Amino acid sequence: MMHFEFNERTQALRDQLIRFMEENIVPRIGQHREEVRTGHYPVSFMADLKELARAEGLWNMFLPGLRDDEPGTRLSNLEYAPLAEQMGRVPWCAEVFNCNAPDTGNMELLHMFATPAQREQWLDPLLNGEIRSAFAMTEPDVASSDATNIQTLITREGGDYVINGRKWFISNASHPHCRLFILMGKSDPDNSDRHRQQSMVLIPYDAPGVTVERNITVMNHTNPHGHCEITFRNVRVPVSNLLGGEGEGFAMAQARLGPGRIHHCMRSIGQAELALELMIERSQERRAFGKHLHQYGAVSDWIAHSRLEIEQARLLVLKTAWMIDRVGAKAAAKEISLIKALVPKLHTRVVDRAMQTFGAMGVSPDTPLADMWSQGRALRFADGPDEVHLRKIARMELKERQASLGKGAAYLTPPLRD
């Protein structure tokens, strides 16, 4: 049985989070924008908000395996999902609660696979919100949505690994507190098993040979934390910096992506929900040709369709979170692809309707809508483009129906003959 109503603990945390955001985050949206615009990053109030959130128990809520001696509140994926939705309403606020990507996925990886020494050096500071990190997988010269294509080499030389390659769209790499790259590369490129060629290594941000070439704009927006192009030229790290085992990189990356897609999708739904709220308010305040906007059939339909689509998407994401909790990410692979293909399109569709309702104001910086639309559009590439997930869904559907092939004939009506 699947039950998606909030338990008492989740409801209490959700109410607490909403109050925290209304009192401490929403009033600072304008200040955040202005400080970032003038080059003040991290913003002046971030450290104080993080300290306050941690004191209130709104900290590290994304990690189901959080240990009793580690800072934060341990929640299942299903319990965390509605909290991620609320955080999505203000994109920068996840950092306040130490629930920001890509650190969340990196902490999951370290939590599952790090040695005691690696945990002490990298995981503990991340859990405490003292440093930031980046996940270096995507490359400019290959279709990195299939991780078997990556070309960065991890070569063993005595007691070291030597890394050579180029990565891009590496989130967090421009953050002043970024201290760690978790890099995915090929340590055994000649292995006949394409999924055993990859490994992950931990690379300090300031290691010799690491060069951040540029912070790439996304939809002509510059993100201060960065989506960077980085070269690794003869970067040398000790073999003790291997995360997990050699040849386990592909499997580890898959383990990282499942919960992360829940987080992305719920944050997107939070933005769609905010866009719908703004659309409704605008339609009740603005008049055109003698009527309020909501009195026109087109706008009324936009509101209704948006509510239908948000509710459908939320239920599918909650089902996927429930499945990951119950049977693991591997068994929920189809559902993970379903939400990844569905939600970014929902995100942009609802935001686009809100932009149209606001008119010219909708594409201006006076509303968050243009930024929200850009984020949703970029998510159709992040963690694998739409086409990859659609292909995977179709392949799994065909495989599931293979055993019953031909049974549909019973529902066909043969032509009548004289």
Structure, described:
This protein is an alpha+beta fold and 418 residues long. The chain is 46% helix and 15% strand. It is built from 11 helices and 10 strands. The strands form 3 sheets. The protein has a 4-stranded mixed sheet, with helices on one face. Strands 2-3-7-6 form a 4-stranded antiparallel sheet, with no helix packed on it. Strand 2 and strand 3 form a beta hairpin. The longest helix has 37 residues, at 249-285. The radius of gyration is 23 Å and the shape is globular. The N and C termini lie far apart (51 Å). The mean pLDDT is 95.
In short:
This protein is of the alpha+beta class. The chain has helices at residues 8-25, 29-37, 46-55, 77-88, 103-113, 116-127, 249-285, 297-327, 333-358, 369-379, 386-401, and strands spanning 132-136, 153-157, 160-171, 178-186, 198-204, 210-215, 227-238, 242-243, 287-288, 291-292. A hairpin with a 2-residue loop joins β9 (287-288) and β10.
* Count of DSSP-assigned helices: 11
Main structural class: alpha+beta
Average per-residue pLDDT, rounded, comes to 95
Which stretches are low in confidence, meaning pLDDT under 50 for 5 or more residues running?
none
Shape: globular
Strand content: 5-15%
Major β-sheet annotation: 4 strands, mixed
Question: Tally of extended strands?
Answer: 10
Query: How are the strands of the biggest sheet laid out side by side?
Result: 1-4-5-8
Distance between the termini: 51 Å
Radius of gyration: 23 Å
Question: Which sequence of SSEs, written as H and E, runs from N to C?
Answer: HHHHHHEEEEEEEEHEEHHHH
